[in-house]
């Protein structure tokens, strides 16, 4: 019989369809099931336009966790969200390659923040929520460099806020990165594992 790090009777329920977040949890040895929360993120954002980027990320992660936990109150549920913050302005995923080019043209030569929020629901209620931040300095890039990057990276950039993925060609865009890699990927693992451990959900 294989030993398990996870102590709850059912697998961790991830309120996200993100394959990256699921892969991070599985690589850490946790059994994971996923369920899409089915919430309208832009409508939630519009409800409180005065929220700062970190507050917005926390509120969206919480809404995701609680939406899934309402249907599965007996499960441990994790919701996550990530917000790109350029001097207080929130960026969303680009709608098309033209939008991606515009985002990169605005981010180039500047430092932006990625706020990754996580919410944990236990017994159908919010048990914890936190935000971790990474800062990324993008190299100065002219239009030709941006076009070359988009030609290489292709349509996959549309699946990521900021139009880049550091685990792919997007790494070439940056001069300096400050922050944990899992925070940049959208699920800060060390603080999440610490919180699960504090609730006696991990074997050690």
UniProtKB/TrEMBL annotation:
Active site: residue positions: 81 (proton acceptor)
Report the Pfam families cross-referenced here. Answer: Maf
Top-level taxon: Bacteria
Native organism: Methylobacterium isbiliense
Name of the protein in its database record? Nucleoside triphosphate pyrophosphatase
Q: Which cofactor does it need?
A: a divalent metal cation
Q: In the record, what lineage is assigned to the organism producing the protein?
A: Bacteria, Pseudomonadati, Pseudomonadota, Alphaproteobacteria, Hyphomicrobiales
Q: What is its main location?
A: cytoplasm
Class in the EC hierarchy, top level: hydrolase
Q: What is its EC number?
A: 3.6.1.9
What the protein does? Nucleoside triphosphate pyrophosphatase. May have a dual role in cell division arrest and in preventing the incorporation of modified nucleotides into cellular nucleic acids.
């Amino acid at each position: 019989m294989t030993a398990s790090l996870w102590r709850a009777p059912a697998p961790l329920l991830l309120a996200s369809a993100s394959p990256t977040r699921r892969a991070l949890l599985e690589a850490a040895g946790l059994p994971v099931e996923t369920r899409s929360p089915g919430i309208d993120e832009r409508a939630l954002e519009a409800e409180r336009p005065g929220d700062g980027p970190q507050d917005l990320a926390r509120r969206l992660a919480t809404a995701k966790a609680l939406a899934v936990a309402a249907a599965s109150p007996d499960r441990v549920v994790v919701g996550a969200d990530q917000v790109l913050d350029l001097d207080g302005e929130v960026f969303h995923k680009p709608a098309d390659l033209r939008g991606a080019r515009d985002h990169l043209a605005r981010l180039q030569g500047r430092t932006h923040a990625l706020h990754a929020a996580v919410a944990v629901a236990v017994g159908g209620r919010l048990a914890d929520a936190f935000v971790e931040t990474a800062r990324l300095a993008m190299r100065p890039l002219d239009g030709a460099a941006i076009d070359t990057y988009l030609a290489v990276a292709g349509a996959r950039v549309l699946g990521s806020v900021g139009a880049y993925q550091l685990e792919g060609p997007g790494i070439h865009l940056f001069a300096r990165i400050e922050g944990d890699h899992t925070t940049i990927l959208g699920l800060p693992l060390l603080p999440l594992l610490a919180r699960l451990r504090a609730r006696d959900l991990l074997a050690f």
